[in-house]
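Look over this record before class:
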Amino acid sequence: MLGYLRNSRRMKDPFTQVIEKISIDYLHNVILTDDIDGEIHLEYILFTSKGFVVLDIKNTVGVLYGGNQMDEWTVLTNHKRVTLRNPQHALTNRIAAMKILVRDVPVTGYVLFASGTDFGDNRPENICLPKELLEKYRKPKNSELDRVIEAFSPYWKIICKEVKSNSPD
């Protein structure tokens, strides 16, 4: 059994490893009802020592050409060109929906790209790599962690109550 657990830990993707290192708890692939569009999909909601973090994952590695005002971004790899919609607009809506739900708690959001992605000199806002996210949201020592859990747990319970799974049954 222990060998199986070791192997399963090794098999986790780098995104899951970082998410588990920085979060007290997290939700994955959930739907939140909002007052404007009806429902909003959230890839990840993290309960961290600094509040809640909304994460969108982009598992694309290469050179990213994109900007805050651009509608489409391009990632160039050795083998292909990938075009994607500017993820900042959807992220902004997800953060706003969360802020309505937990008004008094900090909510931030990031589009998390795979390690090795190059943003050049003009990195768009709210874009980061796993290492940077790990540095920003390291878990505090136990005494501070207990205080954070006590302060944010009531809001986490609200979030858990309001979301529904987006996974097929």
Notes: Residues 142-162 form the longest helix (21 residues).
